[in-house]
Amino acid sequence: MLKRLTALAATLIVAAGTAYADPIAGGRANVVIQPEPPSLMLGLVQNGPTQMVAGNIYESLLRYDENLEPLPQLAKSWEISEDGLTYTFHLFDNVKWHDGEAFSADDVVFSADVFLRETHTRLRSTLEHVESITAPDANTVVFKLKEPFGPFIGVFEGGTMPIVPKHIYEGTDYKTNPANNHPIGTGPFKFVEWVKGSHILLTKNEDYYIDGLPYLDEIYWHVIPDAASRAVAYETGVIDILPGGSVENFDVSRLTAMDNSCVTDKGWEFIGPLSWMWLNNREGPTADKRFRQAVMYAMDREFAKDALWNGLGKVAQSPVSSSTRFYSDDINKYDYNPEKAKELLAEMGYDGTPVRLLPLPYGETWQRWAEAIKQNLEEVGIKVEMVASDVAGWNQKISEWDYDMAFTYLYQYGDPALGVARTYISSNIGKGSPWNNVEGYENAKVDELFDKAAVAVTKEERQTLYTEAQQILTDDVPVAWLLELGFPTIYRCNVKDLVTTAIGINDGFRDAYIEEK
Amino acid sequence: MKDFWQRFRRNRGAVIGLVLLLAVILIALFAPLLFPQSPWKMVQRPFLPPFDMGQYPLGTDALGRNVIAGLAYGAQVSLLIGLVSTVVSLAIGIPLGAFAGYFGGWIDDSLMRFTEFFQTVPSFALAIVLVAIFEPSVMSIIAAIAIVSWPPVARLVRGEVLSLRSREYVEAAVLSGQKTSTIIWRQILPNTLSPIIVLASLMVATAILLESSLSFLGLGDPNMMSWGYMIGAARTVIRQAWWLSFLPGLAIVLTVLSLNLIGEGLNDALNPRLSRKGK
């Protein structure tokens, strides 16, 4: 028996576009791209700027709404067998590549099984759970897993599994294929030209497989290397859309105060950037659980959110971002409570040993944030020495465990098995990387919970396991969680339906349209 | 001494400078009494404008920190770094210059080539590199400023010593069998004191500027509130809150100006014939 998770594309498009007026076709979106991407071939390069542009050229089987529930993309419907081992996707049957060739299930098999296995590190480790990928007919793809793998339904996103054309890449050297300079996908926009250092131009795909989409005629990506110039370009009307992170935080309030200027912090739910302070669990005062809890109580995170992040984002309560699957609300929460912090410090007998604090050298906002937290901590009696450092020094100090407290932020990719477990499981302790279990937290129970949860079959089972893990972690406080970062996308209010999915404007232009002012 | 004070007083600018500097010194000394709370403490809502709230007469910065407290503690940092780094560079420059000038010959040549090596490297660039290598802290900043500031001292002292060592009283001292070190220390150096004092007062001013520039670039000691840091942090919000950059900037201007005025006054007072000639 199959559990049908079918949803018709048409209904969803209507649901996504619950605007008051009918969408209007036509117009050009002027967007900033920062920094200029190294390549637009999404199958080879998956960094932020590449995906932001190429996410409109290439597509995957699914996209995800802001609760990370799958939506149709190339697959119009799909089923997961009850044992969690077989994923069957039914593809749209009228899809064409931008060069006119017909798209079929063979392209999906080639992309996932051959091309991306070779080029895509993050996907490759996921594909280790896969036994076979087959195409029983031209419009059906079947993924068979070796064992149940909960996060699997979350890997069919554009940047994780972009579908590339088999007829162009099969049997060639992928890295030197001339098509890399003129990417060919199935997406709503086609590549026109890329003048390095100036702009990238995409034009509407007239043969797109969903009637009426996209609405825009063109997307014009402007390359402007200087942050202040990007802000000015928006102010003077050259630019309509500033993707998250393209202007300095302190400019955001000024730009959003302009007429016809809107801002949203949505569209980051899929990667779920979560910031925290590493606390060195091995030595010094931070090795004491009560000290770490005191740090959590001492920090005024609401203040930092309002004063430094323009009120965008959310105070992080758990190691799992609230936008990531299996976040649980049933955990130990830490509100700003300096008295409680002082009590805990008194109870542990903190002797005033100074702790070193390493800010994230990513600019003014992070520097101010470190100053604010230092002050918060000193007010409850913790002596803090700020250590100045550049990016290379920061990387090295963290990788070599030479710190007491250090700022960072990491992505979660929608599922605790993909983006959370790596920070807390003891098998991931090892010098030399600033992204693994750097704090040196070891808890056999937590290891076991994460292991079990990754391969549990049902959602309910996984939720139970992850809830327990979150309860233990929020009691042990291996790291001091700060904010679920909200990177603001600033845009003219008459650009509608720009951010409708958890992937944000990376695949947002399909549904976007421009309304007359 | 009375003479000196009278000549100094004749230069009205110098007196104004002295009053200003004394004010800055007093503020720096009494900062912990005037503002018992740390200048890093977030006391009010951010961006409180000046003169809005009696308790915080100059308003608050982007994190709600008391600006006037920051200025007072900044005075400590500026004066401390200005003075100490000047003392250190004098300690390097004076002996080097004195040896070079007194012994001449190859010692002079090699010491002066060594000095020129430091003079040819742009001093601010060198200071940035030094602070970046040793990680910003009070010690590394003082060291960096001292290392880039001593060459003018060495050259000045060498010139003075060169002209003094052929004077009759020095030759008399040599004939009377005094030790070389005694001659340099007792006979020559005291007579080079006045130009050194004038130079030193200007060097303190330069050092304060250097420290401010380093802090502005984010290379200040992250644990100390300094004027350059305040400007650097406020630069990003200059369009919303210009006074946050303006006030510490004004503090730097006034302090540096006062030191320059004093330097000029000292020059007048210590070299009366030289300075009055042209006027």
From TrEMBL, chain A:
Secretion signal, residue range per the UniProt entry: 1-21
GO cellular component: ATP-binding cassette (ABC) transporter complex; outer membrane-bounded periplasmic space
Domain Solute-binding protein family: 70-424
Keywords: Signal
Entry keyword Lipid biosynthesis: no
Main subcellular location of this protein, as a coarse class: periplasm
GO molecular function (one): peptide transmembrane transporter activity
Annotated GO biological process: peptide transport
Superkingdom assignment: Bacteria
Entry's localization field: Periplasm
SUPFAM superfamilies: Periplasmic binding protein-like II (SSF53850)
Pfam families tied to this protein: SBP_bac_5 (PF00496)
PANTHER family: D,D-DIPEPTIDE-BINDING PERIPLASMIC PROTEIN DDPA-RELATED (PTHR30290:SF38), PERIPLASMIC BINDING COMPONENT OF ABC TRANSPORTER (PTHR30290)
Family classification: Belongs to the bacterial solute-binding protein 5 family.
Name used for this protein in its record: ABC transporter substrate-binding protein
Organism: Roseibium limicola
Organism ancestry: Bacteria, Pseudomonadati, Pseudomonadota, Alphaproteobacteria, Hyphomicrobiales
Automatic annotation (TrEMBL), chain B:
GO terms, biological process: peptide transport; protein transport; transmembrane transport
Chief site of localization: membrane
One of the record's GO cellular component terms: plasma membrane
One Pfam match: OppC_N
Keyword hit for Nucleus: no
Keywords assigned by UniProt, alphabetized: Cell membrane, Membrane, Peptide transport, Protein transport, Transmembrane, Transmembrane helix, Transport
Subcellular location(s) per record: Cell membrane
Domain ABC transmembrane type-1: 75-263
Membrane-crossing segments per the record: 12-35, 79-103, 124-150, 196-220, 241-262
PROSITE patterns: ABC_TM1 (PS50928)
Membrane topology designation: Multi-pass membrane protein
Family in the record: Belongs to the binding-protein-dependent transport system permease family.
Name of the molecule in the record: ABC transporter permease
